[in-house]
């Protein structure tokens, strides 16, 4: 019998509605597979660059999704993803100018893809390409799965929260030695 998994999502919240979401995805067993931190800078290997590539591909896969600030770390990934639709004035205040360049323009249908589907696609694509990298490019094999089963998310509710999350993501390599995901 499997232990019951704790639901970490906000009860009653619709994760397909437009908004900005901060996510963290960790490798299985926190294995450092995507590069290393050199002093205060992340040095991605080919696997890390592949992770960053698939993050940016979200916009091509899902028409109402915009990848925002992100960073690939040795054993985890942080990113902000924006689910868009007919963006209203309240949401606009927490989106950076380059994301909300089509102010007031309808960019998709009112029915949006859910955050869990976005993350599932991202994990699937990166896992498949990582397996190919192990087979063909000598990348470090992983234990059973590339990513941990779940992911952390935080709903970005306003501009101040958005700025704080961006600051955390951008400075993550500087904080690596003190990071919860740090493994030497």
Portion of residues in beta strands equals: 15-25%
What characteristic shape results from the CA principal axes?
globular
Proportion of helical residues: 25-40%
| CATH topology call | Alpha-Beta Plaits
CATH homologous superfamily classification: Transposase IS200-like
Taken in chain order, the helices and strands follow as EEEHHEEHHEH
For the largest beta-sheet, the strand count, sense and barrel status come to: 4 strands, antiparallel
Q: Can you give the mean pLDDT? A: 82
Instruction: Report how far apart the termini are.
Output: 34 Å
The number of strands is 6
Name the CATH architecture: 2-Layer Sandwich
Structural class: alpha+beta
Question: Which terms would index this structure?
Answer:
184 residues; alpha+beta; Alpha-Beta Plaits; two-stranded antiparallel sheet; 5 helices; 6 strands; globular; disordered N terminus
Report on the structure:
The protein is of the alpha+beta class and 184 residues long. It has a single domain, classed as 2-Layer Sandwich (Alpha-Beta Plaits), CATH 3.30.70.1290. The protein is built from 5 helices and 6 strands, in the order βββααββααβα. The strands form 2 sheets. Strands 4-5-1-6 form a 4-stranded antiparallel β-sheet. β2 and β3 form a beta hairpin. α1 packs antiparallel against α4. The chain is globular. The chain starts with 18 loop residues before the first strand and ends in a 14-residue tail after the last helix.
